[in-house]
Specification:
Elements (H helix, E strand, L loop, with lengths): L2 H10 L8 E2 L1 H8 L3 H14 L2 E3 L4 E3 L4 H25 L2 H16 L5 H18 L3 H14 L12 H17 L3 H26 L4
Antiparallel strand pairs: 1-3, 2-3
Helix pairs in contact: 1-3, 2-3, 4-6, 4-7, 4-8, 4-9, 5-6, 5-8, 8-9
Length: about 210
């Protein structure tokens, strides 16, 4: 069993919420493995910034508003690079997959925020893959792992979902025709808008989730 990936997925999807305790004995019993792979998985998750050492144990780490802004700032730059590379390097097979993902998003009934998050995640991961740049994909995956843990998604904030579909449609078209500059600009504006919505949500709640 790949304990690291299993724990990482549980953190990202909220199965293990912020502050959840992570002790070697309990996790070893849960996964029916020795404490060695648990210890290694916790070490890697700490390096990823997903967990931290509390007063007496490891626990799932949260994010402050300032840290969230920092992540968005870096992700905006990387998403722009990925979109430009996708427009330049995409194959016909890449385009077919991206168009299928976007079609699924359009057909989705926006009544389940978790479903919307999955569709949106798949769309972005598809664009990243189209860049054919493994390092870029790895960096974006790590950043996205932090932001996706919010229980309240930006996708259901007011009329954000409709704007997301339109922005994605424009991005698909720019990538399809190989317009590198426009694809990058759309991706940048898309993530800037997402950051703005997240900050509005912070302002309303008065605290990080």
């Amino acid at each position: 069993m790949d304990v690291y990936n299993k724990l990482r997925e549980m953190i990202i999807t909220g199965v293990l919420p912020v502050g959840a305790p992570l002790t070697e004995p309990a996790l070893a019993r849960q996964f029916r493995v020795s404490r060695t792979p648990i210890r290694e998985a916790l070490r890697r998750l700490q390096q990823d910034g997903l967990i931290e050492r509390g007063s007496r144990r490891m626990q799932v780490r949260g994010l402050s508003a300032e840290e969230t802004l920092e992540i968005y700032d870096v992700r905006i730059m990387l998403e722009t690079l990925a979109a430009r590379a996708a427009a330049e390097r995409r194959t016909e097979w890449d385009l077919m997959k991206l168009e299928q993902v976007h079609a699924s998003m359009i057909a989705a009934i926006p009544d389940d925020p978790y479903r919307l998050v999955r569709y949106n995640r798949t769309f972005h991961e598809t664009v990243w893959a189209m860049s054919h740049n493994g390092t870029l994909v790895d960096l974006l995956s790590r950043l996205h792992a932090h932001l996706i843990r919010y229980r309240e998604t930006t996708l259901t904030y007011r009329d954000r979902w409709g704007h997301v579909l339109e922005e994605h449609r424009n991005l698909v078209e720019a990538i399809r025709v190989g317009d590198r500059a426009t694809a990058g600009q759309i991706a940048e504006q898309h993530m800037v808008a997402a950051r703005h919505v997240r900050m509005q949500m912070y302002a309303v709640s008065g605290a990080a989730h």
